[in-house]
Amino acid sequence: MSSEEETFRRLVVELRVLEGTAEALQSRVNLVNAALTELRIASMTLEGLEKEKKNTPLFVPIGGGSYIKAKLESANKVIVGMGANVAADRTIKEAKENLGNRIAELEKTRNTLGQQFNQVLEKIQDDRARLEEITAKLREGETTKGVRKTKERT
Fold it and tell me: Average pLDDT, whole number, for the chain?
């Protein structure tokens, strides 16, 4: 096996690994985007709740486009998920700060993932270009194998 054939095989394996990595990174970006959307909706909801008074009627989403009717008991306290199935009473101001911090962290994470994704894509493009070069050389070698050179006539 020639060194070009060995390089070809190595590049094919590397490309498969890189493509898997790119898919995993894209999935993580999608999850982060979904979490960001959820946090932004929560933040906008808190903005709206700040302006409401006690006993204001609300429609609370329960999923699947369905809602229940409720009345706002307190316009200045909310229960905020802290992670690991832990929740705590917070003022709306504290809750908005918490959400803002979580949004900022997720945006940093998304940016980092985006940079990693772009680096992987660049490496995939480089490897594909290199693979095409090697493929062309190997094909060129195949066409000349077994072919005798003709003698020049004088």
Answer: 89
